[in-house]
Amino acid sequence: MVPENQTQFTEFILLLFSEKPNQEAPLFGLFLSMYLVTMIGNLLIMLAISSDSHLHTPMYFLISNLSFVDTCLVTTTVPRMLVSFRTQNKAIPYADCLTQMFFFILFAGIDNFLLTSMAYDRFVAICHPLRYAVMMSSWFCGLLVILCWTMAFLVALLFSLLGTRLSFCTNQQIQHFFCDLPEIMKLSCSDTLINYILMYLVSGLLGVIPVMGILFSYIQICSSIIKIQSAQGKYKAFSTCGSHLCVVSLFYGTVFGVYLSSAFTDASWKSTVASAIYAVVTPMLNPFIYTLRNKDIKAALWRIISRKTSQ
Predict the structure, then answer these.
(1) Strands 173-174 and 11-14
(2) 3: helix, coil or strand?
(3) Is the C-alpha dihedral spanning 92, 93, 99, 105 positive or negative?
(4) Taking the alpha carbons of 210, 213, 217, 220 in that order, is the dihedral positive or negative?
(5) Rounded distance, CA 18 to CA 280, Å?
(6) Tell me, what DSSP letter sits at residue 168?
(7) Helices marked H in the chain
(8) Which domains, and CATH codes, for the chain?
(9) 110 vs 310 pLDDT, higher one
(10) Which has the closest alpha carbon to 100: 220, 183, 37?
(11) In the chain, pLDDT over 70 holds for what percent of residues?
(12) Which tens digits make up the pLDDT trace of 93-103?
């Protein structure tokens, strides 16, 4: 399905971060560096977890899936942005825009559900340690990941279908660095009331329910940690949650900030920068958060380096 006036409309113009050509070279270098760091860092985490049998546990299984999804998330937006910086061509065809929007929503949605699954994993590990092996069995972890992918796919499909029923007139400029449904809807000259209702209803449910699940898990975790007698035991229990809490704060803080502000204000460079934090910066920081605060992953990476050096 294509827009009704496809003869007049064939592409969008992504304004990216700046309209000044002299600023595009530094931005190209910045985002290229961030992309390479993200890819290398997340690939190292996946390599460490897959190659070390000590890390074949539910927690690290979910972390490796998060790293894989993060590499896919940044690949959805950054490479095309880099090409636009180098070629000075900011146009993106309508079909490519819908495709980019679908995959961005897909991988951002999986991130959302995986963070909730990881909170549940920490809840079971700390609050029900004796039943952990049963409650977080390998088949259940696999089922959790499949559910994450399935729910995110359905949401991405729904939002993409909402985009296909829009028609566009003359305004083709998107104040963003990727095709985001709220920004596309602002350019539409057709009735978008149903689209907005569905978008905010589904987005609200997908934002509130996982956050409530995470909050419930950590309330239970905190109450269990308080009951621990030794200070060392409390520190050890809470340290296993520190990395996850950092990632959750970065991801949800910026996501809610961007989409709540977009509901009341016009798009601006501030919301574009905020979007870059959860779409680019957060996936880049995840490997550092999980390696710098995790002795097991650092040990696994050191064993890989030592093995390669000796060979």
Answers:
(1) parallel
(2) coil
(3) positive
(4) positive
(5) 17
(6) B
(7) 24-51, 58-87, 94-127, 132-135, 138-164, 181-187, 193-227, 231-264, 269-276, 282-292, 295-310
(8) 11-310 (1.20.1070.10)
(9) 110
(10) 183
(11) 88
(12) 888 999 999 99
The rounded distance, in Å, linking the Cα atoms of 136 and 132 is 6
CA 172 to chain centre: 27
Angle (deg, nearest 10), helices 58-87 and 24-51: 160
The share of the chain scoring above pLDDT 90, in percent, equals 29
Nearest to 121 by CA among 48, 64, 169: 64
- Among the listed residues 13, 14, 3, the one whose alpha carbon sits nearest the alpha carbon of residue 168: 3
Q: For strand 173-174 and strand 91-93, is the pairing parallel, antiparallel, or unpaired?
A: unpaired
pLDDT digits (tens, 9 = 90+) for 173-208: 888 888 888 888 888 887 888 888 888 888 788 888
Looking up tokens 């501030």 gives: 270
Nearest one of 162, 154, 149, 151 to 98, comparing CA atoms = 162
What does R_g of the chain's alpha carbons equal in angstroms? 21
The alpha carbon of 143 is separated from its chain's Cα centroid by a whole number of angstroms, namely 20
pLDDT band at 69 (very low <50, low <70, confident <90, very high): very high
Q: What is the DSSP letter of 7?
A: T
Who contacts 260 (Cβ-Cβ below 8 Å, separation ≥6)? none
pLDDT tens-digit profile of 24-45? 788 889 999 999 999 999 998 9
In this prediction, residue 3 carries a pLDDT of 46
- What is residue 70's predicted lDDT score, i.e. its pLDDT? 93
CA nearest neighbour of 265 among 186, 162, 200, 171 = 186
Least confident of 55-59, 170-174, 194-198, 246-250: 170-174
